[in-house]
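user: can you give me the structure for this one chain? tokens are fine.
assistant: on it. calling the predictor now.
[tool input]
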Amino acid sequence: MTSTGHTPAVTPPPGPRRHSRSRPSDPDTPPLTVGVEEEFLLVDPASRELRADAEKVVAEAAGELGDRVGPELTRYQVETRTDPHTGLADLADQVRSTRQSLARAAARRGLGVIATGTPVFAPPGPPPLTEGPRYSRSAETFRALDDEQIACACHVHVGVPDLATALSVSNHLRPWIPLLIVLSANSPYWGGRDTGYASWRTTTWGRWPVAGPPPYFASAPHFEELVGGLLANGTLLDRGGLYWDIRPSHHLPTLEFRAADATATADDTVLLAGIVRAMVATALTAVDAGEPPLRPSDALLRAACWRAARDGVTGKGIDPATGRLTPAVAQVEDLLSRLRPALDRHGDTDLVHDLWTRLRTQGGRAEGQRAARRRGAALTDVVDHLVTLTTPPD
């Protein structure tokens, strides 16, 4: 969820491997950097219930991961972060090894790790929050909103030159937020029941006062004026509380994409990262060419996000250009066609298409969770299914 504001996102290492600020408007431009944050839930292997032992697992995992592992809003959650990478294969290696390190640390504490947008089983009442002044302020300010935020996401950061460019890219990519929800939908269960949604996390997350698709920003001063007003009137605790699906990072030279559920597998994370980077590169080319962005109404974009959250890969989505329903798979295929030049430029085409084909054939991760229940006839089998998917084999 990254609602804490305490832990840095995609911590940049010292030296030359910081997020690239270049603009890939021609084939000779260096590749954009990309990094991810992943959030996980801790479960008891026997009961499959959530366990509030995040601080112990973080301390255990820090031996291998250092400051690339940290706490989240609730004590059920742990967050990991990658370095920025220019090669998608290198990012994939670090995502896999990080998940393995976290799983080993959790196992030493007698726990399992699952990657899902919402918990299969959620105990009644408010969750135990991580200690700290910001968490206390959050509870005081947002009250019962914190009570159902045992929600995990996958956030992708892509290097951009400056705030003005980040906002221009955001304007171009707002219409495609529903497809990021479709690709990552992985939260059909909440509190022991099937919600009927592919991404229930998306619906619960939308309750926050500054969440969902970002506004269209006319300029950097427009952005600063709006954010300053939200800070002044107490809607935001700080800039870390900007929970829009796309936002300029408040402490890194990146544009952050936050629409995705926690992805079930390391491959799903890599697929998402590859697509998001290609989206940014494509938008940068359009910005440089002076092409105007598509501007669907706020109401249409909100409806498209709702439909994407409800139906995921297997349903129909609202086309932001026409407002009509079309198969979600067809919309993703069309997006990949649009992104082909950027995917080619980064050397990601084959990997992204292979991973998308696999996900599409399987019907998405929400349906995978439901299939696990049908096979085993119990919700505990869903948790076991998620434990298996979350940690890649050695």
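assistant: here you go. Residues 100 and 393 are 8 Å apart (CA to CA). The two ends are 28 Å apart (CA to CA).
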